[in-house]
Design a protein that fits this description.
This protein has helices spanning 2-24, 27-39, 51-74, 78-103. The protein is mainly alpha-helical. The chain has a domain at 31-103. The N and C termini lie far apart (75 Å). The relative contact order is 0.11.
Length: 105
């Protein structure tokens, strides 16, 4: 009986990983994952003025950490790709702003 339950749990875990691989295989899926990580404050500081606010930020960030662990297990290169694409987007936006400011001259 325990072996069957473990097998079902393992199948569910593998399905989660496969779902993450499918989501991360598309540009829109990767944008969505970056948005989720941003919403959790994954990259930010969790120190705040009050203990309650710090606890809230730490709880929110822990969701991002859990997501990152799943992403790493699904494919160790996903996080690297998310970071690279985020940087490319920032660079593209900077170039567009720079081009517009030169057009105003």
């Amino acid at each position: 009986m325990a072996q069957v339950a473990k097998s079902a749990a393992q199948q569910e875990h593998e399905q989660k990983l496969e779902d993450l691989r499918a989501v991360s295989a598309t540009p829109g899926g990767r944008r969505f994952l970056r948005m989720l990580l941003d919403l959790t404050g994954y990259y930010g500081n969790t120190h705040a003025d009050t203990d309650r606010h710090t606890a809230f930020l730490n709880g929110r960030r822990s969701v991002g950490i859990d997501l990152q662990v799943y992403l790493d297990e699904a494919d160790p290169l996903i996080m690297l790709r998310l970071i690279q694409e985020a940087q490319e987007t920032k660079n593209h936006e900077r170039r567009k702003r720079s081009d517009r400011s030169h057009d105003d001259d």
